[in-house]
Amino acid sequence: MSHRPDPRHFQALLREHEGIVFKVVNLYAHHAEDRRDLAQEIGLQAWRSFAHFDSLKAKFSTWLYRVALNVAISQLRKTNGVRGAQLEPLEQHHLESIGAEQAPEPDERIATLYAFIGQLDPLNRALILLYLEDKPYAEIAEILGITETNVATKISRIKQTLRGQMTGAAMAGA
Question: By its UniProt entry, which PANTHER family does this protein fall under (predicted)?
C-alpha cells in the first residue's frame, strides 16, 4: 500500500476489533496502569503499521492479533530484561477483568486453569489465547509467524501440560 492511510478508517476498524486488544492486554499486563500503557502502545504500533496492512492478504483481526501479541511480548521482554520483573500468575482479580463474556463467578477449575495459563511463557500464552478464541491453526500460524505443524505440536503439548497441572491441582485439593 503506497497511499497514506485514512485515520478514520483505522479508528473504525480498531473500535470494531477492540476486544482483541483488551484480551491481549489482560493476558499480558496485570495492573490497570500497565494495561492502559500496553493498550496505548498496541494502538500506536497498529497505526504505524496500518499503511502496510493488506486486506487481500489477511483479515484485519488476524493482522491486529499479530501486532498486539508482538507488542505485548516485546513489552514483556523489555520489562523482564530491564527491571527483572517476575511474571505474575493470573489470579481471581485478573479473571474479573478478562472480558465481558467471562462468567461473573467462574468456578474454581476455570480460575485454576487461567492461573496455569498465566504461568506459561509469552509465546505459549499467545498460542492458547488464540486456540481458546477458536482460531483455526492456519490463522494462528499466520498471526504468530510459525508453521501450522508447529502450532499443532505446541498446542498439543500445552494442552497436555495444562491437563497434567489440572489433574495435580485436583488431586491436591481432594
Answer: RNA POLYMERASE ECF-TYPE SIGMA FACTO, RNA POLYMERASE ECF-TYPE SIGMA FACTOR
Residue 168 to residue 166: CA distance in whole angstroms: 5
- Over residues 47-94, the pLDDT tens digits come to 999 999 988 988 999 999 999 999 998 888 787 654 444 444 444 444
Query: Locate cell 498460542: which residue?
Result: 127
Q: Which grid coordinates are listed for 140?
A: 494462528
For residue 146 the three cell numbers come to 510459525
DSSP string, the chain: --SPP-HHHHHHHHHHTHHHHHHHHHHH--SHHHHHHHHHHHHHHHHHHGGG--TTTS-HHHHHHHHHHHHHHHHHHHHHHHT-PPPPPP-HHHHTTS-TTS-SS--HHHHHHHHHHHTS-HHHHHHHHHHHTT--HHHHHHHHTS-HHHHHHHHHHHHHHHHHHHHHHHHHH-
- Which amino acid makes up residue 146? I
CB distance 62 to 17 below 8 Å: no
Cβ 71 vs Cβ 49: under 8 Å: no
- pTM for the structure as a whole: 0.69
